[in-house]
Amino acid sequence: MTRERITKGAFLVLGRAGLDLYADPPGTHIVEARAFFPALGGSAANIASAITRLESAASLVTTLSDDSVGRYVVAQLKNYGVATDHIRFIKGEERTSLAVVETRAENCQSVLYRNNAADFALTKDDVAALDYQSAAALIVTGTSLAIEPSRGASFEAIKRARAASCPVILDVDYRPYSWSSRDEAAKICGDAAKQADILIGNDEEFEVLARHENGLSFARTVAEEFGSLVVYKRGEKGLIAFVDGETIEMGIYPVKALKPTGAGDAFMGGFVTGLAQGLKPKDSLQRGAASAALVVTRVGCSPANPNEKDLQNFMRSHHINQ
Fold first, then answer.
1. CB under 8 A, 24+ apart: contacts of 217-224
2. What does the alpha-carbon distance between residue 135 and residue 58 come to, in Å, rounded to a whole number?
């Protein structure tokens, strides 16, 4: 992969989109809520909206239930400037994902409704017509690998992207409730990880991929054996990245968090748009860290994503921990 390719075209983002309902006002427990604030949610949708907020182009590839909730999601995506040409509405019992969430820094509760989720209905036909030749990169979120036919569609998209020399970016995005077992997740996500040009995950996710090995050692091995750019996120400890034979260690931007959710998706948005701007990996990683810091200080995930002006002002006025 040449990272120069990422400076051209729109990002294809494959994965889930849904409706988030936040107990309102911030700090309210779900059981005490009398009102809820609606927002676009789902990891892939959050990543796509983060990218467009930061002045790059993104198209979401997913399936949604053919109902008012699915149409709400599409309307919100359009409001963020995300292309929706590759979204298919489906009829039947499948439903667009719903998350009911608290905006709390401590003991934040998130209740997800993912039984028979509509985004798992994505098929190989849905990804066959994508323009991989012109895309900046294909971003796949690991949740889409959990169940067929979405699993097969994700691997088909990866295969077609690689054949077109389109960079593949995998966010491990491990959600235990989506998988039949941890071992299954390790095998399937591990297979996808070895085909990724850029691999991003947190310490728990790399421990899953590594099975009985050390997660950090596994991340380093993937970088060395497959030539991938690997980002190992460590929460409040920052991150370690393996890039072109170099190890980059980076801290976080200290902020007073309003809630813990949304940081990973915002990190992806900040990071890949940095690469799209032609920045070096280290500078792009710093953008990702800044985006993550900003999002946890605001309500929601997609609504909390910063625009380019917000991000630049934050990075000028705040210092990252070393």
1. 220/247, 222/193, 222/194
2. 9
Above 60 in pLDDT, residue 1? no
Q: Which domains are delineated in the chain?
A: 3-15+43-63+124-317 (3.40.1190.20)
Q: Report the alpha-carbon distance of residue 6 to residue 1 in Å, rounded.
A: 10
Measure the CA–CA gap between 51 and 273, rounded to whole angstroms: 6
Q: Look-up: residue for tokens 């209740």?
A: 111
Whether 73 contacts 46, CB under 8 Å: no
Q: What are phi and psi of 87, to 5 degrees?
A: -105, 130
The predicted structure's pLDDT at residue 254: 96
Mean pLDDT (the chain, rounded): 96
Q: CA torsion, points 231, 234, 238, 239, in degrees to nearest 10?
A: -20
| Residue range 280-316, pLDDT digits in tens | 999 999 999 999 999 999 999 999 999 999 999 999 9
Alpha-carbon distance 202 to 230, whole Å?
11
